[in-house]
Amino acid sequence: MLLFYFDENQLSSLIHSSSDKNNLSPQRNIEIQPDFRLVSSIIDVEILPVTYRRVKLHRYKESKPLGFYIRDGVAIKYGSNGVENVPGVFISRLLAGGLAESTGLLSVGDEIIEVNGIEVSGKTLDQVTDMMVANSHNLIITVRPQNDTFNLKRTVSSTASPITQNNISNSINQSGSQINNGMSDDDESELYRSHNNNNSHLQKTPSVLKL
């Protein structure tokens, strides 16, 4: 058996020390980490039609590229004259690891309605690309999601318009962005399927938008 002897001063010191430790609550410092940044958000929900979605992508200098393909196509919609064929621009592919894919707010087949408040209706694929390049660090895209029930079907246009380097070189130089043309035959999968299987077909994406 071990016995310990303490004088009065030592015993008093131990008692007070133990009491002080019990009364002290642990101190926690909660702060936002410097690398915690907003990368995307859904905005203007209260003013948009229920079939639209407006997505704001926040891209920083050192962040990942936006990373998606776009192409022109044809959407079949309800209009004043019934069912109408309307040309449009669509997201045809999301690049793995890109900002667009990581947000979960954009999908293959989404129709692009506006870019930073400017309607893309009537614009060429080159013009839409230029708009995105110019606003690449604060891009706001209004889309009609691919699963829009008001849309009967979306089929890819038989004449996809290629994005040429000459048409976008000025915008690229200003924004520091880069666009690579072309892709391998094995890269592209079926993007849009008509409800009528006889009209389903494949179409290659003319270029990829890397911002």
Describe the overall structure.
The protein is an alpha+beta fold and 211 residues long. The protein has one domain: PDZ domain (Pdz3 Domain), CATH 2.30.42. Helices cover 20% and strands 30% of the residues.
Can I get a quick summary?
This protein is of the alpha+beta class. 20% of the residues lie in helices and 30% in strands.
The CATH architecture is Roll
Question: Regarding quaternary structure, how should these chains be classified?
Answer: single chain
How many domains, in number, for the residues? 1
Task: Give the overall shape.
Answer: elongated
Helix content: 10-25%
Distance between the termini: 76 Å
Return the string of H and E elements.
HEEEEHEEHEEHEE
Main β-sheet description: 10 strands, antiparallel
The CATH C-level name is: Mainly Beta
Round the Cα radius of gyration to an integer and report it.
Answer: 28 Å
Structural class call reads: alpha+beta
Find the count of extended strands (DSSP E, 2+ residues).
10
Tell me, rounded to a whole number, the average pLDDT.
68
